Amino acid sequence: MSSLRTPIKDTMLPWMGTAQTNQSKISSYMLQHSSESKNNLNKNKVIKKQKSFAPKKNKTPTKTDSSTLSAWYFEKNKRTNRLWDYINITPKSNPPDKDPDPPWGAPHTSKSSTTMRIWYTNPCGIGIAYDIKSHSSFEFLRHHSKCDIVCLAETNVHWKRLSPKNTLFSRIKSKWQEFKYSTSHNRHESLGVNQRGGTCTFCVGQLIYRFLSKGSDKTGLGRWSWISVQGKNQYETRIYTAYRPGKKPPSTTSRLTTVYEQHDRYLRDRKIESEPRDHFDQCLVEELEEQISLGKNIILAIDANDDLINGSFQKIMSTIGLVNPFINDLYPPMPPTHHKGSKPISSIFCSKSIIVTRAGILQKGVGVRGDHKNMFIDVDTESLIGNPLF
Q1: pLDDT surpasses 90 at 3
Q2: CA 20 to 30 Å from 140, out of 24, 120, 158, 249?
Q3: For residues 118 and 375, what is the distance between their CA atoms, to the nearest angstrom?
Q4: Which residues are within 8 A (CB) of 213 and not within 5 positions of it... i.e. 6 or more apart?
């Protein structure tokens, strides 16, 4: 019986031979053409890649200035989606932009061995926990400020409600082995751990052997803290850190927790007819005049929330014999001390017997972290304690 299937003739596929050799020839043919296809595919990929990344001749900039080259590179990378190849070419001959907020006065990187440095700033909150902000601030004070006395206003902490590891003692202890400190906060109200206002003052290093006493605002409002140092013949200097309330906040934005509102409640509860800022000025002047009458020198580091060039608080300090060493004919005009301000509102006032050898204000973002600039004065040691330290 003949087969119903028609055999495939050799002429249908010229490269095919007998049945025994068909399989080997097919395998050889497929291997050859697959390798050729793979090579052609890779070649096409290379050609496409070169075409996509190579800039067209008619679009290459003919100028060599930085703005044209930068714009061309940006458009090229935007087209190829490879932004990491962006090249910003800036001519070396162009001078750098002028610093809009340069440091003022003397640099803080050096200090004479015959002086004591008093460092002041408003950190706008020292933090309820010893976090990165607080740690970096104390790290700067320890290793870069060369300070002997530190004054911090508006610490915004209820010191009695902090956990033991977050107290000021623990924070200072982590950086200095020898120190003395004083703190203040509003003791009449407890608005939480983050209680606005308050101050702290501390001395470190060899000056602690001249430490005499410490204290704070007698009213318990936490408006200032102080420490006293004394040398031979009962020569004493008292260093204050104070925070003066700002202006009355608008009723629409009031949260009843500002320093002004805390003081206002205190005065109304005791039926004292006085505005908080006026009451602050009156109490501070009374205390300073009392200490001056006892023959003590005064150093006052304060955030006055007032123009310290032509404002009322500057005039008050002048009437009791305190001078602002940052206002001097040898220096340029005192710059703004708040990051967003236009006038200096913070300073360090001194008795005329205190000899200030150097004064400086750091630029924004340098020093203890906050929204106020750091500032310092270098005081002759003998004018501070009446004799050399050793």
Answers
A1: no
A2: 158
A3: 9
A4: 227, 228
The beta strands (E) that lie in 131-197 are given as: 149-153, 179-184
pLDDT above 90: residue 250: no
Residue (of 245, 160, 242) closest to 201 by Cα position: 242
Whose tokens are 């608005």? That residue is 191
Tens-place pLDDT, residues 189-209: 988 899 999 999 999 999 999
> Token pair of 322, please?
């305190």
d(CA 137, CA 68): 44
Q: What is the pTM of this model?
A: 0.74
Q: Return the domain boundaries, the chain.
A: 48-88, 104-385
pLDDT of residue 347: 98
User: Tokens 């495939």, residue?
Assistant: 8
Q: How many Å apart are CA 349 and CA 377, to the nearest integer?
A: 10
How far apart, in whole angstroms, are the C-alpha atoms of residue 240 and residue 82?
Answer: 59
Contact of 262 with 197, CB cutoff 8 Å: yes
CATH, domain range 104-385: 3.60.10.10
Distance CA(196)–CA(218), nearest Å, equals: 18
Amino acid at 130: Y
Cβ atoms < 10 Å from Cβ of 202: 27
